[in-house]
Amino acid sequence: MQRILNIETLKQVGKKVKIGGWVNSRRDHGGIVFFDLRDRTGIIQVVCSEKLAEGIKDEYVLEIEGEVQERPIKMVNSDLETGVLELKAEKIKVLAESESLPFDLRDLNVSLPTLLDYRPLTLRNKKIQAIFKIQEQVISSFRKNMKELGFAEFESPMIVPSNAEGGAEVFHIDYYNRDAYLSQSPQLYKQILVGVFERVFTVARVFRAEPSVTTRHLSEYISLDAEMGFIESWEDVMDACENVIKDIFSDLEKNCSKELKFFDIGLPKIVKIPRIKMREAQEIIFQRTKRDNRKEPDLEPEDEKEISNWAKEKHGSELIFITHYPTKKRPFYTYPDPKDSDYTLSFDLLFRGLEIVTGGQRINEEKELVKNIKKWKNEPKNFKFYLQVFKYGLPPEGGFAIGLERVVKQILGLSNVREASLFPRDMERIDQRLSLAQPKKAKPKKKK
Amino acid sequence: MQRILNIETLKQVGKKVKIGGWVNSRRDHGGIVFFDLRDRTGIIQVVCSEKLAEGIKDEYVLEIEGEVQERPIKMVNSDLETGVLELKAEKIKVLAESESLPFDLRDLNVSLPTLLDYRPLTLRNKKIQAIFKIQEQVISSFRKNMKELGFAEFESPMIVPSNAEGGAEVFHIDYYNRDAYLSQSPQLYKQILVGVFERVFTVARVFRAEPSVTTRHLSEYISLDAEMGFIESWEDVMDACENVIKDIFSDLEKNCSKELKFFDIGLPKIVKIPRIKMREAQEIIFQRTKRDNRKEPDLEPEDEKEISNWAKEKHGSELIFITHYPTKKRPFYTYPDPKDSDYTLSFDLLFRGLEIVTGGQRINEEKELVKNIKKWKNEPKNFKFYLQVFKYGLPPEGGFAIGLERVVKQILGLSNVREASLFPRDMERIDQRLSLAQPKKAKPKKKK
């Protein structure tokens, strides 16, 4: 007999079937045993004799043959799709055993370190699973929308030859006795491919050697990256970004209502997203708080929260674009504002107080770019491969990058971005806590 | 006026439009200039006066306004969709200039090193582009088929805590003064997630520090990885693999006929894929060639070619499954054949003489796995995180991994796998040739 899925039992009332799954819970009741059996489609109640259930505990993996019956007392609620029926077990085969659980998996209430130390187990909790169903949907939705707009998908390399974007937060690789690095962004490759396919996107992996532990940073994260040529204005890029973000939200509403219900917060109301310059934002923040950051070259996390509050109060929007960041705070390839070259044609998108997207127009002229590479204290020879794209004609273009884990964190109101990463990496953890797994080296290596 | 795409001009005959793209070629003809203008949808002929075309050369990026007209002499062939019309240019704006080309981009005939040194430019050749359209389609097709079969997509981490699969071909990362490595396979994470979602897949990036240069190996490549729980037999995994491979071929036939036409070879005829044991394959090879590799623990590249020839002659199949590889040649997690534990329930899929898939059933019992970890000279403490999945119940399961670049290489009859990688990495190259970009270190570091 072929195994059917729990959800498929709904169409098999009165029939003999075989199902398989994990024991979600066991209840003994005067000689009769009830199991909740969990598979990827949901939970079904199984009834059997004590003898048949002998020795079976939570998280055992079972294959059960039996008859699908209507329940004497129907449980009709949205959490249990098969609440109207149960399986009367006739044969139970143990496919795999389980040790006793270290915590209650149904009512998970553990600290973040424990949640992550036991990731293979805690992922079996339905609410935790929902986070990653939502993550999968955000990626699919991004991909679907990009393809509809004529963007070609590509796979960006992760081993890169130089620390192209500058900054110390780069991981070094021993590469056949030469130096190589982990990619901090697919930026250069996106631009190269605008020269080929005009519009491209990639679900990229990016790496940042973040030297501190915060609730917003990961050492390895997923970046939904897009780049488009033949723009008429840098605002075309912001428009494209606004559309894809809104489409992600509406796809989630359509396809993930069950998963979203586990979380109190819900999706944002979709309105036109306000756009203001960074300097204006600083002025507004000053007016509201009397905290004077008006001369700062960037927004601090508390500024991002405050301006988000303003956008919600003033425009009813939980998202806000901040534009025209100072040139010196942006990477070398950012297009300067022709009206004031101290500022750039760039933007960040904040969502509920956190930056989730960064983007802008890029310089598409070789001379300008080479000038900036030098100004940013790097050497044009390190960019020889990349510079070809400008040598041989690149149209005006721009793009953006969405931080996947941050989007999911903000949608669900999670308190730490690590909760939105299946297997988060940071300076203290790769799967296991590093302090438990391996000693720190006695002499720190010199950074190159 | 909003830019329209070249292909859209077909519906605009007699109308004024704006188009944009790269000069694919320029022909001067007695005071009249003809451009082939290339955008992502195809090529259109542009006609204008010499004056309007002054200074414009190949690969210049132009924005052109003009009227769409029927051509006096219609060019009707499949390569030029817009051959029935041309654009009479009235206004030309140069969006970006180009240097003189180092080779003829239309009739590309360069060595592999030159092809790759100039990747940003050579990708603009239509035949080269076709390789990556086909690659994109193979990935989409894999993804679509996996989703239809109820597999959940996940993103596997690339920074891993230990050299889990053994072997020296691993890249070391300096990770906050600790040791970490680049993932050689998403294997452990796939298995962890079978414990959560039952069936999972991922478009993974894997890294191998291949110590030699061959036509089949890359240091960074894309692996289409799937893993499924609740299998009844290890052959379920092979069946799933056979189905997805066939679906990929039929999707290519449907969606990429234009791209496939650039290559002489074409898709394989789809028949039931023969399955034979490695020892039987060796016997057949011996009978055919008198080359006696019957005691070898693996097939050599020339063996793979020979047994593929046999499959084609005997079964009319360009694909063949080789099964039951020796236990000592497979990773520690491979399920031993209960009938003969010197062999495993594993398989490779060969396509036109090259291994493109590897797969099999996995050990799903903790005790057996721990025994093997030790036998493979590793320490169970390095697998503490992973072993949880077996402690808490994992059903019988298996999976497979498709080497994307190899599939594309074999479909198109490319002579080197590097041609099927957008930005190939190997011991001699990361974008640029390393010998040109940076000197080798004087003292090779000791491998850990």
Topology of this protein?
2 copies of one chain form a homodimer.
Chain A: E1 16-29, E2 32-39, E3 42-49, E4 61-70, E5 85-96, H1 112-117, H2 119-122, H3 126-148, E6 152-153, E7 159-160, E8 172-175, E9 178-182, H4 187-197, E10 199-207, E11 220-229, H5 234-255, H6 257-260, E12 275-277, H7 278-289, H8 301-315, E13 319-323, E14 336-337, E15 340-344, E16 346-351, E17 354-362, H9 366-375, H10 384-391, E18 397-403, H11 404-412, E19 425-426, E20 429-430, E21 432-433, H12 434-437
Parallel strand pairs in A: 3-5, 6-10, 12-13
Antiparallel strand pairs in A: 1-2, 1-4, 2-3, 4-5, 7-9, 8-9, 10-11, 11-18, 13-16, 14-15, 16-17, 17-18, 19-20, 20-21
Averaged pLDDT of chain A = 94
Fraction of residues in H or I helices of chain A? 25-40%
- Show the largest interface: A-B, 97 and 97 residues
The rounded distance between the terminal residues' Cα atoms of chain A is 62 Å
**Main sheet characteristics of chain A:** 8 strands, mixed
The beta-strand count of chain A equals: 21
Assembly level? homodimer
Low-confidence stretches of chain A: 444-448
CA gyration radius of chain A, whole angstroms: 26 Å
Residue share in β-strands of chain A: 25-35%
Instruction: Please tell me what the overall shape of chain A is.
Output: elongated
- Strands of the largest sheet of chain A, in order across it? 6-10-11-18-17-16-13-12
Determine the number of helices of chain A (DSSP H or I, runs of at least 4 residues). Answer: 12
Structure class of chain A: alpha+beta
